[in-house]
Amino acid sequence: MMVPPIPFARSPKPTLGVEWEIALVDPETRDLAPKAEEVIDLVKAAHPEVHLEKEFLQNTVELVTGVHETVPAAIGELAHDLACVKEAAETLGLRLWASGSHPFSDFRKNPISAKMTYAEIINRTRYWGQQMLIWGIHVHVGISHEDRVWPIINAMMTRYPHLLALTASSPGWDGIDTGYASNRTMLYQQLPTAGMPYQFTSWADWESYMNDQGISGVINHTGSMHFDIRPAAKWGTIEVRVSDATSNLRELAAVVALTHCLVVHYDRMLDRGEELPILQPWHVAENKWRAARYGLEALVITTRDTDERWVTQELAELVDDLSPLAEELGCLNELHLVREILERGAGYQRQRRIHQRTGDWRNVIDKTCDELEELVPDA
């Protein structure tokens, strides 16, 4: 049987695009507010240059950048877009809030957007699909040829716990502290099209797999697989979807810089004819769980021989090792913000401290909203 080809729109440069999901909250109740369509319409009327997307939930606005060559350029566009969304939200008496999940909102009371594919997802996935009160970051990096895509994705999966631990910000769920740094990660993988990618070795393997998913009906309701890292053939990119949504643009800049540098680093290794790292699938799965459970306190598996190191040690060394490349790519300052997160603590740690001190998740929402306004990149 002939397998239909999946054309990959090759990117001559390692260009960059970012998607950031943020939510609307009522400042009185601190619960989610299903007003995204109204906010988007207000922004569209006042600032037609801003690219926003409606998301799965009516409480969510997704900020989407254009194609950029540097992290500062992408973050600059997001800063402008965020200011426009904030202006519209305030007109409606709402605040902006971003994290991996909301700590107490009832998923049964949050309506989904009016889009047939979303209704089909709920119809198919039922209980688990209805619970998707979760928000993330998607980073696209341009790749020059489809033959490079899966070796780089497999290598990036060895850095899964690093990217997740930095951004983990979803400890609360349904009013309780789950004990996890990223409950979002555990929720999202319940969907049949989500989770870790398989370790494909070639683009032909990917084409064959996607053909099977189409024939068997797995992707009929979505049109695609929502792997944690996946090819975006239409754009000629690798899309990294590991991270929880950060509460602020400063930390977003850090994880985007780290992601950009890692992808380019592995791409350069291929240029030099070097073998890219890959871990056994069971080690990758264990690292994902450890990062979701323990965040920056995770001990992660670093080699095929099952050597282990603290993820904070790994992150500190990554910043040092990648700094020359970051300087070349124009994101050295943003990469060094990784160290700031290690010092301040990740989002889940800050949220948990507030909840343990006050016993009230509403205080967590207030502080997280404040961070969106206060923790901004340097001018």
From TrEMBL:
Q: Which InterPro entries match?
A: GCL_type2/YbdK_subfam, GCS2, Gln_synth/guanido_kin_cat_dom, YbdK
Keywords (alphabetical) are: ATP-binding, Ligase, Nucleotide-binding
Tell me the domain of life: Bacteria
Q: What is its EC number?
A: 6.3.2.2
* Class in the EC hierarchy, top level: ligase
Q: Does the keyword Nucleotide-binding apply?
A: yes
Q: Reaction catalysed? A: L-cysteine + L-glutamate + ATP = gamma-L-glutamyl-L-cysteine + ADP + phosphate + H(+)
Its BP terms in the Gene Ontology are: modified amino acid biosynthetic process
Which Pfam families does this UniProt record tie to the protein? GCS2
Q: Name one GO molecular function term.
A: glutamate-cysteine ligase activity
User: What is known about what this protein does?
Assistant: ATP-dependent carboxylate-amine ligase which exhibits weak glutamate--cysteine ligase activity.
Q: Which family does it belong to?
A: Belongs to the glutamate--cysteine ligase type 2 family. YbdK subfamily.
This chain's protein is named Putative glutamate--cysteine ligase 2
Q: To which species is this protein native?
A: Corynebacterium marinum DSM 44953
User: Which lineage is the organism of this entry classified under, starting from the top rank?
Assistant: Bacteria, Bacillati, Actinomycetota, Actinomycetes, Mycobacteriales
